[in-house]
Design brief:
- With 124 residues, the chain is of the alpha+beta class.
- The protein has one domain: Aspartate Aminotransferase, domain 1 (Alpha-Beta Complex).
- It contains four helices and six strands; from the N terminus they run H-H-E-E-E-E-H-E-E-H.
- Strand 2 and strand 3 form a beta hairpin.
- Helix 1 crosses helix 2.
- The protein starts with a helix and ends in a 5-residue tail after the last helix.
């Protein structure tokens, strides 16, 4: 599905003409149940109705993760908890643009969000 390419391209500063290349780098184009929706100031991708990853309006990615893995993931440089309504949220990460410049790094972070969202029960 080309739909995933937009979040990847936007997060990388890639033009829309390069979206197919960005999709292949992220490796999630064939994920089942993917839909796109504007939210959180960017374009988000949902897996069966659960937000997985979003191109942040401020650059970089916002993504979901297992809440139990949050402390380990935010120990990495350029990764922090998302703050919603003044509260730092476990299970929600912001990954700085500089952390996803290499295709393998981008793919890793997109997979974290997609894998977690895919593990959740579908939303109606």
């Amino acid at each position: 599905m080309i739909v995933v390419s937009t979040v990847v391209a936007a997060s990388m500063g890639v033009t829309e003409d390069s979206t197919e290349e960005a999709v292949s780098m992220a490796g999630v184009a064939t994920e089942a149940g993917v839909t796109e929706q504007r939210m959180f100031g960017g374009l988000a991708f949902l897996i069966n109705g659960n937000m997985s990853v979003s191109a942040s309006g401020n650059g970089g990615l916002m993504l979901r993760c297992d809440p139990g893995a949050t402390d380990e993931l935010v120990s990495e440089d350029g990764v922090e908890r998302v703050v919603m309504r003044g509260r730092a949220m476990d299970g929600w990460l912001r990954v700085d643009l500089r952390r996803i410049q290499k295709p393998e790094s981008l793919q890793r972070w997109v997979r974290v969000g997609v894998d977690y969202a895919a593990s959740l029960p579908p939303k109606d």
